[in-house]
Design a protein that fits this description.
This protein is an alpha+beta fold and 689 residues long. Helices cover 15% and strands 33% of the residues. The strands form 9 sheets. An 8-stranded mixed sheet has the order 32-33-35-34-36-37-38-39, sandwiched between helices. Strands 3, 4, 5, 6 and 7 form a 5-stranded antiparallel sheet that branches. Strand 26 and strand 27 form a beta hairpin. Helix 6 crosses helix 7. The longest helix has 19 residues. The protein starts with 14 loop residues before the first strand and ends in an 18-residue tail after the last strand. It catalyses: Hydrolysis of Pro-|-Xaa >> Ala-|-Xaa in oligopeptides. Keywords: Hydrolase, Protease, Serine protease. It is an enzyme of class 3 (hydrolase).
Amino acid sequence: MTRQPYPPAGRDDLVEELHGVPVADPYRWLEDPGNPATEEWLAAQGKLFSDELEALTGRDRLKARVAQLLRSGSIGAPAWRGERRFFMRRTPDQEHAVLYTVDPGETERALLDPTALDPSGLTTLDSWQPDKEGRLLAYQVSVGGDEESSLYLLDVASGERIEGPIDRCRYSPIAWLPGGKAFYYVRRLPSTEVPEGEEQFHRRVYLHRVGTSTEEDVLIFGAGLEKTNYYGVAVSRDGRWLQISASRGTAPRNDLWIADLTASSPDSPDLVVVQEGLDAQTALHFGRDGRLYVFTDLDAPRARICVADPALPQPEHWRDLIPQDDEAVLSDFAILDDLDRPVMLAGWTRHAISEISVHDLATGERVGRVPTPGLGTIGGIAERPEGGHEAWFVYTDNTTPPSIQRYDARTGETTLWAASPGAVEVPAVNTEQVVYRSADGAEVHMLVITKPGVEGPRPTILYGYGGFGISMTPGYSASILTWVEAGGAYAIAQLRGGGEQGEEWHRAGMLANKQNVFDDLHAAAEHLIATGITTPERLAISGGSNGGLLVGAALTQRPELYAAVVCSAPLLDMIRYELFGLGATWNVEYGSAAKPEEFAWLNAYSPYHHVREGVAYPATLFTVFQSDTRVHPLHAWKMCAALQHAQAADRPILLRNEAEVGHGASWRSGCAVGRFPSGSPQGRAAGRP
């Protein structure tokens, strides 16, 4: 096949010396999206991609099957406020999930429909939080995928918007005081008050009183602290206790303070240090029984739950309730106390498979296990804030769309409470968890999904992420099922850098240890080849964001091992990544090129800087999003130009550049009603690449 020539891209003779090392950057001009040369180049890349796409056969059939399997819709766990509950549901014909409320009389009504707010479909519901009585709702929306959330207030009974917008609220938690008259929230300083280029940072915690101007909001916390800090904030159900968490960027540690709001004013809380300067992640829950429950990985990289007196919240006063498990990672808990013997439900992942155990609330003794539908993933465990004997959780696995399961502690039974609304015929697949060894001998787990009856080498996609303590757990995926049904294999490697084996596993793949992640992926590929699942000529790798960095490094380190690469919203220039988007918040995960030792780590694997002319690289597709405010598309633009210049094989290097799309998925809308304050280590999901 004769391919069209790649769009011309000038190579500048730009070399900088960093810490005594020359660093070439021939495509720096592509960092400027407003440069006419960049615009011309992107337009030409778009035409090239479209032309290549038209030549592919079978796409319509696969696309139709994916759409069919997506008609399962989705359902979210309920958030209770008294006898009223709130939940998200997406029907088969909806692009965005809708927020519903069910009144005490069991009357269901749509409360917030993103498509009704904006028929163009570009507006997403980023998060929502009812007040403690369920009368008011704070919600955040953004447009075009930019995640620049604006905050609004809504009267639940009437459905009318009563306040907003309040801007600069990206990733803000909402912590209501009882009565719905005020709440704490997080907001960035105005751009006029921060140095140029730092507009995405400088967050502060404020107290807002409903019905007043934001000009009257009271600054509570954050002045003079690290510019990249994320803050979590929560108020206990009885309104007595305030907690504030601070994490430098996405660091796997946090500082933590509490204040007794009955002993000091909500406008000027007397904050007491719980932990400060410790290398640990901790979050607190103030129980209805007056005890303080502590979720922490201090001295327990797989996490433990402790109890303490709220008046003595520091680590020296903690007592283990549920100690660390040497094989499973603690992920969540819920308290059910309307029982003769109150219990705690503890959520775990064991090699990324979820389970829930039952413990005596007073002693922590394990007294049972919550039945689950299968070997899959369990979402956050929800309970009624005022107590009870029931809990709800989301369940999904590779062939099961999300459903809501209800556990009754009085009977010990789990029953289906709500299913995803669409009925789809899901193909049969086999899922096997395998163990292989990486280059240094470390044991790594991998899920391999195949079609029953298919033998021998077949086209295979290997997916990985390997960063920020994020676990790769089973979940329903229309695209994976379509691929496997067509005869392919799909493998998901639980690489170091993730959270599948706890915080030690995470740290084994960050900073100076990042090469372990790439080695784990190479070893996964070699295992799939050695066991006859695939061959190098039929093996593709796929990853997005931090996973885009993973596959970018993989294709430059072992180009002969992979036939194709899909690299989505990637980080690829690791020398300059801190200068764009939210990059400065990730140097706690990767390191900083400003420091000689850390520069050496980054320079050793930075994919853009390891492209070599005359190498036969895999066929590569970069997908990026013009409204991405986390990872700037420049990474993929520069890498694409470099690979097109260097490619020695007859395999295409293509770029898909989408407009009005951002880093986060449009269906991610959800409620920040978890046990931990968003912004805390356990509650924070956004902000990472």
